[in-house]
Amino acid sequence: MALFQHGDIELYYELHGSGPPLMLIAGLASDSQSWLPVLADLKKQFSVVLMDNRGVGRSSQDCRISVELMADDCVSLLRHLGLEKVHLVGHSMGAMVALEITLRYPEQVARLGLVTTAACNLARNNLMFADWADHYESGQSRAAWFRTVLAWILTEGFFENRQLVDAALIYLQAYPWPQSAAGFRRQIEAIAEFNARDRLESVSVPTCVIAAELDTLMPLHCSEELASRIPDARLVIIKAAAHSIHSEQPELLIRELFDFFDPMKGELS
After folding, report:
1. Using CA of residue 25, residue 57, residue 249, residue 49, what is the dihedral sign?
2. Radius of gyration of the chain (CA)
């Protein structure tokens, strides 16, 4: 656990495990701790780099935010750590960051995993996220706000266990490093501005696009577009999963990542 000074901001990061380096990049309103459901298994095979994106967690939140700046943050941290080439996995917004890294710094990336994301955000989502930001700023009940967000990223089955829902809400409301309303709004504005559609054919590293069968936030066609336009990309659809695959189906996600980022493959040897 450490802080890295990058220009006028601080970035919180953690290092875990040993083996080929693997950087995990979190999605909107999420930080390094969102990867805990898969971390224990991944660190058995990889040297895992976790970071709080600018605008969230223990990194600076009162700062400019864009996907391009978040990509630069990640690359600067990797270079600070002396990691010349790594595997990348990003979830949702974090996958947009991972894609931007790969397009601008291809020499830094061995293999790329894009989890439940899109080349650009859906117009519907941009409007909805802006509403979420308004409600967050207005002081709406935090429990109600989190319930709305969870309804978009988790399966219906999650809500059938009331004790699990209540425990999740208690955890989220008591989280010691909450995102500020300003940080959330700047992240959603960064997502709205991002569009890599015209650059997908330029991705030059082995890529696995991982979709969730029941994802309503980033529907299957978003992943299908990525896989069809990124050269030689592999498309994997995880059954009975919604947007937050690593929360509800960590074992299935880990299986796919181990298969794609097989440590016996020679890219990082």
Report:
1. positive
2. 17
pLDDT bucket at 265, cuts 50 / 70 / 90? low
> Has residue 226 got a pLDDT over 90?
yes
In 3D space, the residue among 10, 26, 21, 64 whose CA is nearest the CA of residue 43 turns out to be: 21
Give the pLDDT confidence of 119-128 residue by residue, as tens digits. Answer: 999 999 999 9
Give the helix/strand (H/E) hosting 166: helix 162-174
Strands 47-51, 9-16: pairing kind: antiparallel
Quote the CA–CA distance of 223 and 230 in Å, as a whole number: 11
Residue 264 pLDDT class (50, 70, 90 cuts): low
| 187 token code pair | 């992240």
User: 3-state class of 197 per DSSP?
Assistant: helix
**Residue 131 to residue 126: CA distance in whole angstroms:** 9
Give the model confidence (pLDDT) of 184-210 as tens digits: 999 999 999 999 999 999 999 999 999
Phi then psi dihedrals of residue 239, to 5 deg: -75, 155
Taking the C-alpha atoms of residue 162 and residue 168, their distance in angstroms, rounded to an integer, is: 10
Cα separation, 27 vs 52, in Å, equals: 10
Structure confidence at residue 262 (pLDDT):
83
Of the candidates 92, 113, 91, 93, the residue with the CA atom closest to the CA atom of residue 102: 113
Residue that has been written with the tokens 């976790």 in this structure: 50
Q: Span 2-260: which CATH code?
A: 3.40.50.1820
Interacting residues of 212 by C-beta distance below 8 A, sequence separation 6+: 116, 220, 237, 238, 241, 242, 243, 245, 249
Confidence of residue 37 (pLDDT cuts 50, 70, 90): very high
In which order are the strands placed within the sheet that holds 86-91? 2-6, 9-16, 47-51, 21-25, 86-91, 109-115, 207-212, 234-238
